[in-house]
Amino acid sequence: MQLFLDGSDINKIRKYCELGLIDGVTTNPSIILKSGKNMIEVISELAGIVSGSVSAEVSALDSDTMVQEGIKLAEIAENVTVKLPITWDGLKACKTLSNKGISVNMTLCFSSSQALLAAKAGAEYVSPFIGRLDDLNLEGIDLISDIKLIYSNYKFSTKILAASIRTVNHVKQCACFGADVATIPLDIFEKLVKHPLTDSGLSQFTADWEKTGQSII
Questions:
Q1: Which residue among 12, 15, 83, 155 is the active-site one?
Q2: Which residue range forms the structural domain that includes residue 132?
Q3: Which of 17, 63, 137, 165 has CB 3.0 to 4.6 Å from 170, enough for a Cys bridge?
Q4: How far apart are the first and last CA of the chain?
């Protein structure tokens, strides 16, 4: 499973990219707003740091303007993926952009029928929002499972990009259920390495080693 970071913190994204752990980045209008920076500049900088996909979302709601914005975003760098909402206009724009060879990520997916349409429209990625489904007392991870089955049945090439990840357990579930990508907020990503037994075990090993009075170097 590929790991994307969901955010625009340039320094932290660069840090984890240098470790070879990050395969891409996703952004959205809310993330850009929080950054307080110009969208084009943020996407351009991210695309220069990350070798994989960098998702940038259109703001338009009609298909013609979506296409215009999508083309402009795609011109920023070769690894930019245009994010479109799963609406009829979004699907129409997806078909147009994908026919032009532009990578598209269909976002705000909350049902398997939406994911089916996204694949038929030629999307490279579809982004099911599992956390927001959990908020409605639904099992968000079930959507990942359903989409995986549908895509496998019909040999769709569209990748499942699990989004709205709220917990470390969400990441584990996405990996277990076969999501192609998980896009993870920075605060959750930094928790992936943590476990209390690792901390206690390391403390014990360190204390015992100091008692030996030895040195490796």
A1: 83
A2: 2-212
A3: 165
A4: 38
pLDDT digits (tens, 9 = 90+) for 175-193: 999 999 999 999 999 999 9
Q: Is 36 left (phi over 0), alpha (psi -120 to 50) or beta?
A: left
Question: For this structure, is 83 an active site residue?
Answer: yes
- How many domains, in total, are found in the chain? 1
Length of the chain: 217
DSSP state of 215: -
What separation in angstroms does the CA of 161 have from each of 107, 124, 158, 185? 9, 10, 9, 13
Side chain identity at residue 85, one-letter code: P
Instruction: Give the pLDDT confidence score for residue 36 in this predicted structure.
Output: 84
pLDDT range class, residue 32, cuts 50, 70, 90: confident
Tens of pLDDT along 152-178? Answer: 999 999 999 999 999 999 999 999 999
Give a yes or no: residue 134 inside a domain. yes
Residue linked to tokens 């995986």: 148
Q: pTM value? A: 0.93
Residue 217 covered by a domain: no
CATH number of the domain to which 40 belongs: 3.20.20.70
CA geometry: angle 57, 59, 61, nearest 5 deg: 115
**Inside any domain, residue 164:** yes
